[in-house]
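Troubleshooting log. The previous run stalled partway through. Resubmitting the same two chains, unchanged.
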Amino acid sequence: MRRLRPLGLRLAGPLSAAALCLLLLAACEDPSGVGLTVLDPSENDPRARSIPADSAALAPFEDVTGAFLSAQGFSAFRGLAGRVDDPVYGTTISFAYLDVLAPSSFPDGFRDRPVEQAILRLNRGYVYGDTMATTRIDVRQVSEEWSAVGSPADTLFPVQDGVITTFDVAPGDSLIEVPLPADWIAANDTTLRSTQFSTIFHGFQLSPGDQASAVYGFTGGSSLQLISQGDTVRYGVSELFSGIEGPPTTPVSEDYLLLQDGTSRSLELRFDLAALTQSAINTVFLRVTADTAAVSMDLPAGFVRPFARQLALYGLVDGQDPVLITTATLNEERQTFSFASAVLTDIFQELVLGRSEVTGFALGFPLAPSSIDVIPLVRSSDTGCADDPAVTCRGPRATVFLIPSGG
Amino acid sequence: MRYLLLSLLMFAGSAAHAQSNRNYGTVYSRFGLGERLSFSSSQSQMMGGASVALRSLTYNGLDNPALWSDMNLTQFSVAAQIEGLETENELGDQARLSSGSLAGLQFGVPLLSNRLGLTFAFRPFSRVNYLAVRDGFVSDPDFPSDSLGYRVNFEGDGGLQQAQLGLGYRLGPNVSVGASVDALFGTIDYLQRTEFATTSIAETRAAQSTKFSGVSGTLGALVSKTGVLGQEDAFSLGVALSLPTRLHAKRVQTLGFSLDQDTLGTEASGDVTVPLQVVAGLSYLPSAKWTLAADVRYEPWSQFESDFAFGGFDPSAACTQFCNQLRDRLRVGGGFQFIPAGENRLRSYFARTAYRLGGYYDRAYFDAFGGESAGSSQAITTLALTGGLSLPAVLPTARFDLGFEVGTRGTMESGLVRDLFIKGSATINFGERWFRQRKLG
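Second attempt completed without errors. Output:
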């Protein structure tokens, strides 16, 4: 006799199969453009527009040229010393300040014996100028406590009278050893061996001497080496600062905006976005085009002019310090810096809606590693580049991908 | 019973899965206030939507409040629905979409058994859930050789919901009347979501969101007569009238990235008037085994009024062409139910199962326009076959209904699209004696 299964069990199979079929049906999604003609959304595709900057001019901008040992990448940070006369960018004079810190441990009895030798070991990491000619650097002792961070780039800290020593920088030198004279060692022997060294010694100033045709950079890996009866102790650099005197007036070029790091100038940009009223901004590329080849044509032999490979974009807010938005690296092939970030897109969206606190943008240089790099940027775009696809904008511009309003 | 519940859970799971897939359906839901829905009961749904004269002790039809006077048990039902849709245009391009939703929920209490019934119900009134995508490339004006792939999703979402509270009262052996207060509310969003091929560019959403709320009423009447053509037969004639509903509406434009939406401009307020709805129908029960029913529904959407533009309707003075494509809606449906066992509860399970079949014709309340090359707009009609099973449960007052609906909507002519759809529904209907004093002795 056949045993009947419970009724619910008999139905469970087909019902579960039906439910499974519906589950598979629900999982089947393959949307397409079918039905677009019914919706007729003809004007709402994304578009890209180049909007030349409404204004682009060099303006004062606070540069940061100092760093403490605790800063990230300090070993590559530079103190700049020397003088360069650039036929395009003019004259820049720089004074490097470096303080040193006693090590945490000394060889036995080192502090009880007089210092016999003191050598400044300077790691060279940068050059701008005529490397064929000799550049002489004077070494002085800083007379007061100073701070590398928070001081404007054109600050010069007070130094003691008299030059400790002078040294020449040869083009191929990567490590320069500058022996300090015996009379200076004798005068500072107690200070150098003091447990209070950090508070009573304030470091050195490196300044351009009577012959200077280039600015050299000395990195945070430099040190003061002390020798006493065969024991050697290195006081590492703990603080670096560059006091920079740029050209007194902004260098002028008809075709280029001549931007230079360390000279307390940035490129200020403002945009008129009225034409984008209530559009949805997908993304923004704020772009500037460099022309390094054009300004390098007539340089004398042996003249090294470092071009900036990275720029920083800041947002300008009335009554507040500039806010870093993002950085961009030079695309060598296209000779273009292209800034893009979600924050930048958001700022443009708010500008389009008329409610952004950001009133404009400033193009400057990243904080580290400190330089006086230059970058010549194409000043203006050809007329009509914003509307005519055949004409490419080359001046400072915002390339905006957007959904027109009404979507 | 637990296996049935397991199956229902699986069904609910699939409906939820469809929900999580963003719930997309016909592109024609772009028009007016969306695709009109009128769930009355699972029994009616399987019989072509015939409802206003369909009397039952198990089902509590929502289209006609007069039917609520038939209640002698406290009744509860909940229905879920899932839909698969294939849309095709004249070029042979196809899209497949799916959606899942609550079809209806009702709770009825017999205040006086078989004389006065109170019902609360919640059901969708309309649904907007279209999706069409367009893929393309946009060139970088600085570097024309660089192009960026994108996909624009044109989406509609939302719809109107209806909450209903009313009474049905039997005036005499053959006549019942009823009335309900109907609250209509909901939100309709038109969204353009643009995605790019690179994840470094955020998805943007430009949306137009309209919120509605308003109150209306429905009046219903039912006349029944037994012994018309035979001794055991019963004939019923029903009619229901839903009054025009003035909805207060607020519209806001938003713009943003992903879920972070910013409001553009100020909120606009206005009125939207939903036209009246008239449903008339009849049913005939030659015996306890057979039930036949048919309905005609008429909604004069040509009288639709709105301060806001919707798909196929633009009240602005600037509109010069195809400003009002809304037309009067006509829906005709009917079907039958067969229970082999009739009222005999001792017969086998499958003999006590109800088998239902029906169909309907629905001339939508709008004409659609398939683009500038199409010429004129076209009427959109739906033809569908409905059916299903009503499975008895252990409790004689409970039923588990499984329904289907297969149909076609629209045309591939004149730049329009034709939908082929299949729907599945699952409903639990449960009746119990509540709030009754037991008489002892």
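Takeaways: The first helix of chain B runs from residue 2 to 20. The helical segments of chain B are 2-20, 42-46, 349-352.
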